[in-house]
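Field reference: sequence -> structure
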Amino acid sequence: GTILFACYWAWKFANTRSLYDGMSSAFMLGFSQLAKYTSIVLLPLLLLALVLHDLPAQISAYKEKGYAAIARYLGQLILYTAAGGIAIFLLINVGFLFNRPLVALHKYDFESGFFTSIQNIKIFQNFHVPVPYPYLQGLDRVMFKERINAGNGANYLLGHLSAKQGFPGYYFIA
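Structure field:
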């Protein structure tokens, strides 16, 4: 549900550019991060969707005003991204009760190859992560379990548990 609402508010913001719709979009993106780690893919996808939504208008503006129109648009895009990013980071921190934000990357104990490889890059080792420690640790854990295909516990449907096979038509019924 939070992913659906985040997409809805992003669509609304793309069409209205109102402060209310922009902040609603950012907050729903933040809520989606709290609800489901996989919603992290929404951050680049919705930014790309916004750029693609604006592309015809930006091409037209470029033809009329040249590079000044593109520079103005890029400035607005940076402003939207920064304001949204601050709101998202704030909401994630509130959701995790400000549990150790700004911990240096080298102090994490990662399991996934992705985060371990980033951690091993010298210039990132002293980077202080703006999200709470358990948020990034949880994201790492989900990526690690997904990579090794572990952690798929029992499925529950209509009062029954199924340890390995799952249920035929599970998603249709659920």
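Note: The chain has a mean pLDDT of 90.
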